[in-house]
Amino acid sequence: FLAKTISATDLSLPSAKRFFEISEYGIYYFFSGLGTFMLLNVQSLVLNRLLTPDQVGRYAAYTVATIGIAGYLSYTLTAVLFPKAAASNDRRRIWDLGVKVWLRLAPAALALFMLTGTAALTLMGRSQYALDFGLIALFACCGTLMLAYYSLAQIIFAENARSSRLAMNMSLTGGCFNFSACLLLVPRLKIAGAAAAFIITYAMLLVWLWKSRERYLPGMDRSRERTSAGA
């Protein structure tokens, strides 16, 4: 069967134009992945260098109970939202809907991550991991901002190569910013410094995404339409 399939397949190299189009997206996704690695994984390497093994273990427990769950939910939302946004002719409506949902959903998401963090750390051992509700609140805030950013970002990044460049730039900047914030805050605030670095980084990325939305969402918003109609 395999031999018949190969013999019936007409193999050919892509044209130069097509090759460069594919390579362009490949470069964007490679550096976006590099930035995401710096954002989500380099932090633990910094903490291994700056904190004690006990503190690193506590950080890992708090991360798994909040940011780990947020990462899984972000991946699921990406799998659903990205193809829908890419196929839609009215991504502005999807964006507006997403913003409205998050304005109402954020407190519930924060409460959810507080509950999952408390439950997970209780099951792991409250005495072993020193259950700290202040730290849980910080990491729950990280999870909420992370989930909000990735769910809204897919609507913007689904446009074309131009939005892929934006995704790459935001990913690399976020990774470098998070790394720098960790070096600055972790020696002073320990585990809380790692959470603060995440919060500052994702807050910055959300502001960037908000400021960039007009260039990547087609059409005018309703307020502009009303202004034009009145004129």
Question: What can you see in these coordinates?
Answer:
This protein is mainly alpha-helical and 231 residues long. Helices cover 88% and strands 0% of the residues. The longest helix has 39 residues, at 91-129. 31% of the residues are buried.
Structural class: mainly alpha
How far do the termini sit from each other? 68 Å
Query: Tally the helices: what do you get?
Result: 10
Radius of gyration: 21 Å
- Please state the average pLDDT score: 81
Q: Overall 3D geometry? A: globular
Task: Assign a percent range to the helix content.
Answer: over 70%
Q: Stretches where pLDDT falls below 50 for ≥5 residues?
A: 220-231
Primary descriptors:
231 residues, mainly alpha, disordered C terminus
Map the helices and strands.
Blueprint: H1 2-8, H2 16-40, H3 42-50, H4 53-65, H5 67-87, H6 91-129, H7 133-157, H8 161-189, H9 191-216, H10 222-230
Helix pairs in contact: 2-8, 3-8, 4-6, 5-7, 6-7, 7-9, 8-9
Question: TL;DR of this structure?
Answer:
With 231 residues, the protein is mainly α.
